[in-house]
Amino acid sequence: DAGVTQSPTHLIKTRGQQVTLRCSPKSGHDTVSWYQQALGQGPQFIFQYYEEEERQRGNFPDRFSGHQFPNYSSELNVNALLLGDSALYLCASGLGRTQPQHFGDGTRLSIL
Amino acid sequence: QKEVEQDPGPLSVPEGAIVSLNCTYSNSAFQYFMWYRQYSRKGPELLMYTYSSGNKEDGRFTAQVDKSSKYISLFIRDSQPSDSATYLCAMSDGSSNTGKLIFGQGTTLQVKP
Question: Does the CB of A25 have a partner CB in chain B at under 8 Å?
């Protein structure tokens, strides 16, 4: 039973560029959430997708956007990258919006 | 003030010790409480999931929730070197329109052989 899978595992970009991160949820899960984890900090909620719609958003600018596909997989897009966007981006999936969330191993994004 | 406070440690204990990890929170609407373990260069792994107040035990792990004090704990009995990791507490209000988790900063634990 595959867990949450994320790609790529590591990405290096320069300021001003755009990036797309991908997530496949755990089998049977229909909800995908994205989190940003800075070094030495706990994850910060970006947004959650359910039934292909963004259901709730954390305190992140519009440069952060996402999408959920009919097969429940999801993408996180970040435009106009800033140095401060360097972090581990985590995807979590669950069944419905209140069941425990299971995390992937993340994409480590480095901005030069 | 952060919604969830967690002592970042690091916490170093000898093998076999009982470990106590704690978080305090300010939002009385939180109903769901979780503990995750995160190894270096890995994602958080769900350890314990509890609803409302009370205790929950799973093997060497016991989670306690005291909503009246806004305080949650994770106890690890007979700690092993393989328990060395960062432990994150997380919580949510579980309302019908949100799955947003609020995390603590994480406590780094080292168990020495």
Answer: no
- Where would I find the H helices in A12-100? none
Residues A54-107 have pLDDT tens digits of 988 999 999 999 999 999 999 999 999 999 999 999 999 998 766 788 999 999
DSSP state of A26: P
Which residues of chain B have a Cβ shorter than 8 Å from any chain A Cβ? 4, 6, 8, 32, 34, 36, 41-46, 49, 88, 90, 92, 94, 96-106
Q: Does residue A64 come out as left (phi exceeding 0), alpha (psi in the -120 to 50 range) or beta?
A: beta
Which token pair is B23? 């978080």
- Using a 10 angstrom Cβ sphere, with 0-12 exposed, 13-18 middle and 19 or more buried, the burial of residue A95 is middle
Assess contact for B18 and B76: CB atoms under 8 A. Answer: yes
Listed in order, strand segments (DSSP E) in chain B are: 4-6, 11-14, 19-25, 32-38, 45-51, 54-58, 61-66, 71-76, 85-92, 102-103, 107-112
Q: How far apart are CA B12 and CA B10, in angstroms?
A: 6
Half-sphere exposure of A38 (CA within 13 A, CB side): 8
Q: For B5-15, write each residue's pLDDT tens digit.
A: 998 889 999 99
The residue of chain B nearest to residue A56, with distances taken between CA atoms, is B98
A40 to chain B: closest CA residue: B105
Q: Which distant-in-sequence residues (6+ apart) come within 8 Å of A61 by Cβ?
A: none
